[in-house]
Amino acid sequence: MNRTIGNYQLILASQSPRRQYLLKELGLDFEIMVPDVDEIFPVGMAPEQIALYLAELKAEIFPSAILENSKLIIAADTIVSIGDEILGKPANAEEAIVMLQKLSGKRHEVITAVCLKSKEKKKCFHVQSSVWFRELSAAEIGFYIQNYQPFDKAGSYGVQEWIGYIGISRIEGSFFNIMGLPVKELYEELMNF
């Protein structure tokens, strides 16, 4: 059963298949409009500030004409951080290998920020989850990258893919947040919006 949120027509500002899947699973009708944004942020921001900054940037790029007729933008950004280092999307297999080696045997944080924007108001929030990987072998990392090509994923991995099945030993927080959209919190914020 598909539904709307009040009188709003939802626009998902993301080309992520994971975000599209999760929003569909909430039973919501939405259209997809991908903003053309350079994901560049000011130096010195904390990881949650970066995620919020980029989600808001994606929401703000839409011209006001799009927000006419009761449109509601849902923009999101996911950041993976280990210590003070931000792991973005890898440009190639070599970068993906380096990132997964950094995550191997350690805890890292996954922060997803969401920005909801209509003509009248805006609400931005973030959710943080902690993830622990067991030690990954070079063969496991190579197999994963070759077969799953995680080049569109922050931190070079998808929790819902093979590497998540065999490598993640513990999670604190929202699983769906790690996938790229904190659906429970998003649903609650949409109901309040």
Report the β-strand fraction as a percent range.
25-35%
Helical fraction equals: 25-40%
Look at the structure and give the mean pLDDT: 92
Low-confidence stretches: none
Q: How do the SSEs run, as a string of H and E?
A: EHEHHEEHEEHHEHH
| Backbone structural class | alpha/beta
Can you summarize the main beta sheet?
A: 7 strands, mixed
Task: Report what the structure shows.
This protein is α/β, with parallel strands linked by helices and about 190 residues long. It is about 35% helix and about 25% strand. It is built from eight helices and seven strands; from the N terminus they run E-H-E-H-H-E-E-H-E-E-H-H-E-H-H. It has helices at about 15-25, 45-60, 65, 95-105, 140-150, 160-165, 175-180, 185-190, and strands at about 10, 30, 70-80, 85, 105-115, 120-135, 170. Strands 1, 2, 3, 4, 5, 6 and 7 form a seven-stranded mixed beta sheet that branches. Strand 3 and strand 4 (about 85) form a beta hairpin.
Which helices and strands occur, and which strands form pairs?
Blueprint: E1 9-12, H1 17-25, E2 30-32, H2 47-60, H3 64-67, E3 71-82, E4 85-87, H4 93-103, E5 107-117, E6 122-133, H5 138-148, H6 162-167, E7 168-172, H7 175-179, H8 183-192
Parallel strand pairs: 1-2, 1-3
Antiparallel strand pairs: 3-4, 3-5, 5-6, 6-7
Helix pairs in contact: 4-5
